[in-house]
Amino acid sequence: MRKLLLSSLFLMVTTGCGANVPEGTGHYIDHEGATEFIDRMVEEHEFDRDELQALFAEVAYKDAIIQAMERPAERVRPWHEYRDIFITEQRIAQGVEFWRQHQETLERAEQQWGVPAEVIVAIIGVETSYGRNKGRWRVLDALSTLAFDYPKRSPFFTRELEQFLILTREQGKDPLELVGSYAGAMGYGQFMPSSYRHYAHDFDGDGLIDIWDNPVDAIGSVANYFSEHGWQPNEPVVSRATVREGFDESVANQALKPEHTLGELAGHGFIAKQALAPDLAATAMVLEGKAGPEYWIGLENFYVITRYNHSRLYAMAVHQLGEKIRERME
Predict the structure, then answer these.
(1) Does a structural domain hold residue 60?
(2) Please, what is the Cα angle at 103 between 223 and 225, to 5 degrees?
(3) Range of the domain at 262
(4) Domain annotation covers residue 222
(5) CATH of the domain at 255
(6) For the chain, how many structural domains are there in total?
């Protein structure tokens, strides 16, 4: 039977020899949700029950994670404030530095998957400031807290916790040592465990997929993620728009996935400034800018960016940061 942890970890926990135990440890020893989860992991994935119980004796509930889930920046900030978080001189300059440092890798990724270097760089810049801030929470604490004590999204995070434990077993990692975001995202590109297992790519060919510490694998993994989610090479992302007086406001800020064509939006008084084919799938957006409303039209590639984070503000920040970095590179 495959093992989750080294026997030494089990001995450490069961004999009470652990040091610096996080506040809240022990919350999941007799937690009904954790007990059911352990049963399923043993049944479906052949984990060792004693080792899982020892592992969850080390897991800590984190109320701060629940609070953070309730106030993500893209839900509580207007566009101009959200933009100012990410479109900064420092992040642009660091993006140029990252691009130059990994230029050959980025060119190879663009050739293989068709995803522009500026998009890959901007994603990593927005997510972790190019690897400088990959998160401070133990992933196991974050995912357990959200799986067992955050009912509104418990099914999602329970699946991610399952994928995380399978991933650490596959990679030979200690699940108690890995850190990430308050939502359990990891590495340069902040992949959730399921995305790590499905889309992460061994881009340097060393036989190990590592987006925690290897920027080459991280670059390839982000490009592969976008390609798998339908990125269209050499196609636009967004266009500025103008509106006719009395335009139909109901077409704006609908679903992230384009549900109209450019021609249909024009009929509602929402017109792209770029010369684009009228049959392109598109979505209209009105964002709260510093000087008033900003009118935009998102295309299929904009939607693909939202597959990384389901927020039009996030996608717009990624796009604009990438554009700024590319302009500086040129």
Answers:
(1) no
(2) 5
(3) 238-329
(4) no
(5) 1.10.530.10
(6) 1
Q: Is the pTM of this model over 0.85?
A: yes
Q: So which residues are the catalytic ones?
A: 127
Segment 116-171, tens digit of pLDDT: 999 999 999 999 999 999 999 999 999 999 999 999 999 999 999 999 999 999 99
Please say whether the beta carbons of 164 and 183 come within 8 A. Answer: no
229 lies in some domain? no
- Across-strand partners of 252? 284
Residue 287 confidence (pLDDT) above 50:
yes
Q: Alpha-carbon distance 139 to 123, whole Å?
A: 21
> What is the spatial distance between Cα 23 and Cα 124, in angstroms, rounded to a whole number?
31
Residue 122 lies in a domain: no
